[in-house]
């Protein structure tokens, strides 16, 4: 018979934000059961609206009233400035077809596509 573990009395939550490239701040918190994303942010001294970041749990966009579970990671990410598909098209247009892609660096004398 499998033994069930009692629910934790406190939740261990990590909060990570990146306000600019290369600048990451992380906090590890112990919060009461039933805590929300907003509770975790206020425990870190962060104002969700003032930061201008997109908030999520484990890389998935979330809301401030989402309930947290033990071991969750609340992440604050900067919104994208450029659509990634558009940026790739622009890079390809700058580099040209011969300088970009999987087969850009071929061995001399190699067959095309190898």
Automatic annotation (TrEMBL):
Family designation: Belongs to the UPF0125 (RnfH) family.
Family matches, as Gene3D superfamilies: RnfH-like
Protein name, per record: UPF0125 protein Dtpsy_1258
